[in-house]
Amino acid sequence: TLFDVDYVITRIPSNSKQKRRKGRVSMESYEDETVYAVIDRCPHKSASLSEGLVVKHADEHIPRFQCAYHGWMFDGKNGKCVMIPQSPDSENYGARADITAVPALIQQGIIYLYPYGGLEEALTKPLPPRLVGFDQQESHGKAMFWVMRDLDVDWTIIIDNFLDPDHGLFAHQVPWLDLGSASQDHHMLVKEKFSAESFILRTVVDHCPKFSSTKEQNKNTTRSDVELKKAVTTLHYPSHWVTGAAEVLDGDAIDADDEIANFTPFVECKISPVGTGRSRLMLFFTLPFQYPSWLPLPFHFLGQIFLNNFLDDDTHLLATTQKYVLEAEANSLSTNTKGVGDRSLSVLRSPSDLVFRRLYKFFDESLPRAPNRKDVLLNNYLSASKIPTPPRRQTLDRYEQHTKISPDSMSLVQKCKAIRRLSKSFIALLATKVIFSSRQMSARGVKGAAACFLIAVISLVTSIKLEEAFHFNFPESRRDRSLAKIDSLWKH
Length: 492
Known about the structure:
By secondary structure, the chain is an alpha+beta fold. Helix content is 35%, strand content 21%. It is built from 15 helices and 18 strands. The chain is globular, with a radius of gyration of 26 Å.
């Protein structure tokens, strides 16, 4: 779903086999795949085509989408209706029987749609920005963890949050996120580039602690290090955000769209604008050391747990802001007044807030033209502030938001359930044997039974804890323990 419109997509794999290892995929293997996308609605009686079939004839390379309701069939490339089983002799069913085909491509394993025009127009547009971490994974021996998650938070609020370096020390309690903040002594440079095809926003600031109380970092950071190393964050609106560090002599010389040769990414995100009040994220974390390409990446699920925990830190906070932000935007649209993007609710006082003055100005011009956004806002958010914020168990429902859409995580949860059942059965059988045969068991047998019992208990507890990590896992008690760390991290 993009901008509140549903699409159905099919991928035609290449003949070459994917180079896949545990926890990592060679992205080049996806580049030869062909992707076809159409709006997920049959013109006959509006049934979802995603409930139907993808039919591929032996003498054709282009797939056909067949509706499950009455069997109507459509060309995957141009959307033309090619078969109505109840009227098989007709050669032309008319334009009203056709569906809307959307240009699509696959890059680094991620599918992109161009819903604004036809194929000829799409071919004139620049390619989506590449994931720096994936390129370095292939060329520099880097490795990365990633996670995909659906959030009931508007994509503009997600963008706002990712561009905000000041919240890392408080919402995430992570000292190194303070390296990208600005202060009175370390000013932030904001660069932007606007064209008909894109909007790029970049911030550059000295890569050093500003507000954290990490004394060793402050003591070991010399002025020459600060002048040489910069924290660089770049947004390719609306879908790609990356933050990292680079050795730069003159930050002012970096333009918004410059490719920085020695840039080291820390965190990247692909943001999919699912609709008003909804987003899908793919969050990537690049390991800060080289990793042998021939060695499988172990325990990828631990990376997913870590990134899900990271997202949990502030997602509910974003959900609490949404009703006020979208209500203000809806009210400005209803009265045709400026202020959609400047977030008149926001009080900008931090040195890092310079980036938001640029971002909100762009929002002011672009959001009223976002597809379907105005209608959804006017119909649903004019009095949104009066609606209670959903509870944490809903806004942070990791099972619905991540596990169900991630095959690897769902497979792990199913394995944990199987291990849990087997461990319980084994413990019950072992206990029964010990109870009824304890007198006949030797000392060696008792030790063996105790070792087996311990292994079974460890397996049971581990499987339970792992399964819990892929469900709701951030109650108020855990939040309070996290917030208690702030006082020791914040230099005040």
